[in-house]
Amino acid sequence: MGSIEKERRIYPKIGQCCCCCCLSPESSFSMCNALMIIYLLGSPIVMYILEFNIKNIFNISLLVCFSISVIAAVSIIMLTIGASKVNLSHMNQFKIVFLIYILLILASSIVTFCQSFNETYLENGLIEYRKEKNYNHMKDNEVKDYIKKNSLIMSGIIFGLFLVLAYYYLCTCSYIEDIESNIKEEFNIRKMESNQNYPQQDQPYLFMK
Question: Which residue spans traverse the membrane (predicted)?
Answer without folding.
Answer: 33-50, 62-84, 96-114, 152-170
